[in-house]
Prior knowledge:
- The protein has helices spanning 39-51, 54-64, 69-85; strands at 9-11, 15-20, 23-28, 33-36, 89-91.
- It is built from three helices and five strands.
- By secondary structure, the protein is of the alpha+beta class.
- The strands form two sheets. The chain has a three-stranded antiparallel beta sheet with strand order 2-3-4, covered by helices on one side. Strands 1-5 form a two-stranded antiparallel sheet.
- It is globular.
- A hairpin with a 4-residue loop joins strand 3 (23-28) and strand 4 (33-36).
- 17% of the residues are buried.
Amino acid sequence: MRPNLSDTVTISPNLRFSEVAGEIVLLDLASETFFSLDEVGTHIWKLLRQHSSLQIVHETLLKEFDVESARLERDLLRHVGELVDAGLVTTD
Length: 92
């Protein structure tokens, strides 16, 4: 199931993360795999940690960036879907 704006995000308990040079580096302890997020991904990650609600993250990003709501929704849900596919977060 693909994420939607009504979902909340839960970070995997097997995940450790740290900010390095302005970007988030993630370590999945279960698979011993590292992931890195670029500047935008890092900003989204921080918002997800603060709010967990995709709707709130979407609304926050709309206020911060000059972007159409539909495009932001599509990009945000694609990014979160990639995090879900990698097993780094779950949505419900």
